[in-house]
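About this split. The held-out portion is used to measure sequence recovery: a designer receives only the structure tokens and must propose an amino acid at every position. Recovery is the fraction of positions where the proposal matches the reference. Here is one held-out target exactly as it appears in the evaluation file.
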């Protein structure tokens, strides 16, 4: 289908899992709202996106060596050529994505 290199696929899956976990844990969305995932391939670039109904924009933080969490966005930033979040154009929520 898309014929991506295995390394690119593995990286995309890891970034997508981190963004999805952040949406599920931190969005504080009202009951019945969904987390949506989208993968786009355009001009040879793969972009993974996650949307949720949360209001606060994600803030990367520096995790201490003994912290059990707090490394997800740092990992996404290290693996992606670029990443970021924007407010949803219609309704409430946000989109976070990386490519």
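Reference sequence for scoring:
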């Amino acid at each position: 289908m898309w014929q991506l290199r295995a390394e690119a696929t593995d990286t995309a899956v890891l970034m997508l899992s981190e963004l999805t976990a952040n949406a599920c844990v931190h969005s504080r969305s009202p009951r019945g709202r969904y987390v949506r995932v989208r993968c786009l391939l355009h001009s040879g670039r793969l972009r993974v996106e996650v949307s949720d109904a949360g209001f606060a924009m994600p803030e990367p933080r520096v995790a201490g060596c003994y912290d059990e969490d707090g490394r997800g966005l740092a990992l996404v930033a290290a693996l992606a050529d670029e990443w970021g979040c924007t407010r949803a154009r219609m309704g409430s929520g946000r989109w976070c994505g990386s490519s």
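Annotator remark: Helices lie at 6-26, 72-79.
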